[in-house]
Amino acid sequence: MVQRVQVRTITNDEGNKLLRIVRRSSGSVVTWRRAQMVLLSAQGMDAVRIAEVTFTCADRVRDVLHNFNADGFDSLQPKYGGGRPPKFTLPQRQEIHKTALARPTDHGLPFSTWSLPKLADFLVTKGVVDDISHEGLRLLLREEGVSFQAVKTWKTSTDPDYEAKKNRVLELYAIADGGAQPGPGDPTVVCCYDEFGPLNLMPHPGKQWAPVATGKGDQNAPRRRTRRATYNRPNGVRHLMAGYDLSKDQLYGHVTKHKGRVEFLAFCRYLRSLHPAEVRIAIVLDNFSPHRSTNTDPRVGQWAKDNNVELAYVPFYGSWLNRIEAQFTALRYFALDGTDHNSHAEQASMIRRYIGWRNRHAATHPRLREIVTKAATIKRAKVA
């Protein structure tokens, strides 16, 4: 009967040394894998079972155990010659890139995401590379344009007319920016419309200038403004109906109790009154039900037809196409962050005063332009 291959009897010091190597997250992947095999063998596991646990073949496990029995800890170190660091071929880099972008479960592994040690170990096991350090793998992935990022939710548009709607909105933006000439029947003025809210009477998180902390704080004299708790909010909500005129770079808004079809049409009449009746305008907006005509209530479509207005709807889940969204980011930053208003009238007054300030400083205030540009960039990046 063939005697099974087993590591020699190891001392307590040797066992602790093997455990330290296995627990260490840095260093050579080859050393870590070999130490793991030796430690599992010292714990009484046979070569076949070790191969299953370490995702390799039993013959390789036996070679590692034979080498350790003969040379001790020196056998755990990969035998590399001097000279320049190893260079990975183009096929190897492509395979590493492909593996990193795949899910571990696609390869039958029982974890949901790659860490550098897990990915390096898998690449060595599959024979993609002979050895690669964790830092070397990170640098290679960075050169390949791969980084460790948070997983985000994303809704895919289910609109059957997605391309047509998107292209029409982009055509209108090109006309508004002066990049294209309006054709027959095209509007010469483009506005973006959306609702902002709901607006609650609550303390909004924000930042402020405050004295630097020195010593132990005093609850009776806090350094920073405190935010009150709002267990009950009996004052209802308000909504900001807002329009952004691209031709003038001006923002307009009305604060209302409701955002139904009546309020929407009233605000559209206001936008229409800002330009002569003979000037055709377009309003870019989303698919919220009060924005559309229905079989029982055709008022929206009829009003647009009677008043020389084109309603350009963005695709479903396509709010990133609406340029007014970036303006809302700036409004929240300048007018709401860090506030705690006592009444809706006070909050509405703050919003109206901000809109007036914004329209006077739209082209000259650097922080305002920075926030709007950053928000617009983030919205565009969501389709990448």
Radius of gyration: 32 Å
In the CATH scheme, what's the topology name of the largest domain? Nucleotidyltransferase, domain 5
Proportion in helices:
40-55%
What percentage of amino acids are in beta strands?
5-15%
CATH domain class of the largest domain: Alpha Beta
CATH superfamily of the largest domain: Ribonuclease H-like superfamily/Ribonuclease H
> Element order, helices and strands?
HHHHHHHHEEEHEHEHHH
Give the strand tally: 5
Averaged pLDDT, please? 84
Ends apart, CA distance between termini: 63 Å
Helical segment count: 13
Which class best fits the helix and strand makeup?
Answer: alpha/beta
Low-confidence parts, pLDDT < 50 over ≥5 residues? 378-384
Describe the overall structure:
- The protein is 42% helix and 9% strand.
- The protein is α/β, with parallel strands linked by helices and 384 residues long.
- It has three domains: 65 residues; 54 residues; 188 residues, Ribonuclease H-like superfamily/Ribonuclease H (Nucleotidyltransferase, domain 5, 2-Layer Sandwich).
- Helix 10 links the parallel strand 4 and strand 5.
- The chain is elongated, with a radius of gyration of 32 Å.
- The C terminus is likely disordered.
